[in-house]
Amino acid sequence: MPRVSRLILVLGDQLDLESEAFDGFNAGEDAVWMAEAAAESVKVWSTKAR
Fold this sequence. Notes:
By secondary structure, this protein is mainly beta. It has one helix and two strands, in the order ββα. The protein has one domain. The model has no long low-confidence stretch (mean pLDDT 80).
């Protein structure tokens, strides 16, 4: 497994490509981990794909 330089955590509905967290993001070295609480998926509007 390749070594990860930066791990970017994205929680809930905070995924936004314009986020400063992605400034300098390098797909070859960095990784993104997204998590959502099960309760959030029924409380907050979201698309079926989510």
